[in-house]
Amino acid sequence: RVVLPLIWSSAASRAPIARRRTMTADVAAATPKRRAPASALDEERSAKAPKRRGRPTKTAERIAAAAGAAAALALKAAASPDAAAMEVARLQRAAEGFRPGGWQGKLPCRETEQEDISAHLTKAVKQGGSVQVLYISGMPGTGKTASVMSTLKQLTSDESLPRIAPVHINAMRLGSPSAVFAEMYRQLPGSRSCPSAAAHGELTNYFENRKGSDPVVLLMIDEIDQLITRNQAVLYRVFAWLSLPRPRLVVVAISNTMDLPERLLPRVASRFGIVRVDFMPYRRDQIVQILHERLETHDAAGAFAPTALRLCAARVAAGSGDIRKALQLCCRSVEVRLASPGVQGPADVKHLDVAEKELLRASPAARAIGGLPVRTRRFLSALLLELRRREADVAPLQAVTLRYTRLLTATSLDTAMAATPTRPQAGTPTPCAATPSARAPPSPAPCMPAVLSMFGGGGHVDEEVSYMVAALVAVALIEQHEHAAATDLAASRLLTLGAGLDTDDLAVSLEGVEDHPGVLGLIQESRSWRRAD
What we know:
This protein is an alpha/beta fold. The chain has helices at 3-30, 40-48, 58-98, 111-126, 144-157, 180-187, 196-208, 233-240, 260-263, 266-269, 284-297, 306-318, 323-338, 349-362, 364-370, 374-390, 397-419, 448-456, 460-474, 503-513, 517-525, and strands at 132-138, 164-170, 216-222, 249-255, 273-279, 395-396, 478-482, 493-497.
């Protein structure tokens, strides 16, 4: 009686709870399920867990790869033409800057020389003329003519100075020294044409009847060495105008030799005074500076590799220091780079080497030297060594002949000794003293007195040298001048290289064909004979 009511009451109390659970399950089934909010730790785990995606098919991979390649090609096609065009334009500007007319204004690294030229010419023009000749000397390609022309341009534009009538004569282009008078008369303002024979008389009348209001004639004679004759009559007549009462004349003489005033006859040198301005060869750092300024002026700073630029400057400075050769090499290097398809970047060392070889092959003088006989090339080697030893562009024929004789002696001894199979033992008579016998070597080495008498005695060498000089002058490889101040006829003949040929070109041409190691070593060693920078 007690237990049954308790069980019944417990079952009755659990019935409503069961009904509530059933109703809650039905409602949850009828409504959409909602995800319970995850905790912060669950969210962090979910973020770190890798997401599972479906693996793309091979077709999708191919499509994606093709799209990427097309996008890359489109981007390259859009950017490549502009970059290539900009690079080509920069290289073209660099080539234009390296050409002869690619610079305007004062020459760099020649400020001191230009100041001296400007000071003298300004003073002379203000005075209405000067009895002093401005003598400008230096090796070819050192900026002599360019400095004078730059100063002359400034003087003609200066309104505070008297009027100037410039007369520029390049004596190298004259048919004869006496042709300078006709060319000078032709360039004078208001002059008429006249026969060449009457030109000197017309010029004398012109300078004798000058007025104070007439313009000052600024006579610039380039390559004045070409006007030197045996009696120096042409130079005497030119400088004699300076002694007139009022010629209103200023003379500028430009020469490649520094000793021209010392070579003048006393009667010529007494007609005028001299103001000297010497131009030294360009150093390596100066050549680098000039080339850099050329590039920067034409907005082409990245068109030439700095290493190649320094190498070009070093090669030119080790030779003649001719800035024209450096500009020519750089210009041709850029042209070689522009002609190279599929190549990117600036002109570098390999383009410089190609340009140097091409310019050497293109030189008619270099090709002519390669076809000369051996003894004629040895004579040119003697001239090269003498020019470099004197650090000048002229050398006496007598000194060149002596050096040529020594080269012949040395090469002949080497050839004869190389043909001797064995060395004579002690006590064996020398080949010069031995009598011919069957045991004697077939080609005995001659003794020194025999060689010296063969090449140094008599007039054999002098006749041979005279013939070679005439032949080399005929093909314009060398030029011959007269030193009128010398008392000895042999010492009065001077030799210099022909137009368009310098010691560097001659050395490279001779090195390519010289087969004697001793002579080749002398040619290569002579590069260091120049005075240190």
